[in-house]
């Protein structure tokens, strides 16, 4: 594997950068990633084994933290990812803005295993396999001060209002009003916080 990576120095560099363990890795990524990202604030903490692609389509604010084995995708079909200030992303999260746009506000927490997916496969043409029909592309907007629990799925064209809580294991397919607590598959209103 290393021999094949040597043919592609940039990919080898990224692979090493992503794998650097512990405090050393965090400090190196804190120095290097801001120069690679479209925009980056101060005090970012990116753990080892976090996969990022299309750095030039990702903007991250101040005081950002992402934990191990998470993935930040952007770039195909003009997809962009915007993450505000004071945000935390847990382990094994996937933010897939490589098709569509994801906007995450300030003070947002994503627990472990959260998936944000702003595109769906088309499937209306019965004469073609679904994998050849392209995608319906949309966006996901998560406003300020939102907490999304473990293993939630947020699908395209969803806006989660300010101050909301999404219960663990929920699948969100529709907009969420501000200060709502929602849960279930599909997610429904449990109660309002105010």
Task: Note the total helix count.
Answer: 3
Give the termini separation: 55 Å
Helix/strand/pairing category: alpha/beta
Helix content: 10-25%
β-strand amount: 25-35%
Q: Taking all residues together, what is the mean pLDDT?
A: 93
Instruction: Give the strand line-up of the largest sheet.
Output: 2-5-8-11-16-19-21-22
Main sheet makeup: 8 strands, mixed
Shape call: globular
Low-confidence stretches: none
Number of strands: 22
Output the radius of gyration. Answer: 18 Å
Series of secondary-structure elements, N-terminal to C-terminal? HHHEEEEEEEEEEEEEEEEEEEEEE
Topology:
Elements: H1 2-5, H2 9-19, H3 22-36, E1 39-40, E2 44-46, E3 51-52, E4 58-60, E5 64-66, E6 71-74, E7 80-83, E8 88-89, E9 94-97, E10 101-104, E11 109-110, E12 115-117, E13 119-121, E14 135-137, E15 139-142, E16 147-148, E17 153-155, E18 158-160, E19 165-166, E20 171-172, E21 180-183, E22 188-192
In words, what does this structure look like?
With 194 residues, the chain is α/β, with parallel strands linked by helices. Helix content is 15%, strand content 35%. It contains three helices and 22 strands. Strand 21 and strand 22 (188-192) form a beta hairpin. The longest helix is centred in the N-terminal third of the chain and has 15 residues, at 22-36.
